[in-house]
Description:
Blueprint: H1 4-24, H2 27-70
Helix pairs in contact: 1-2
Amino acid sequence: xxxxxxxxxxxxxxxxxxxxxxxxxxxxxxxxxxxxxxxxxxxxxxxxxxxxxxxxxxxxxxxxxxxxxxxx
Length: 72
């Protein structure tokens, strides 16, 4: 299951690694940092999508209950 906090931490770690690679002139470290940032963003996006799916399911269930209660 995706986790927003883990994604943020991965993204931040990637930013730090990219900055360190830039400072040291280490292209490999810099690229690794960029990739970690992308991983972090993907993790955050997945967590948001899971939350939105759960919220949509709850709204659908509420709409179905309301529909049954009104006799429609």
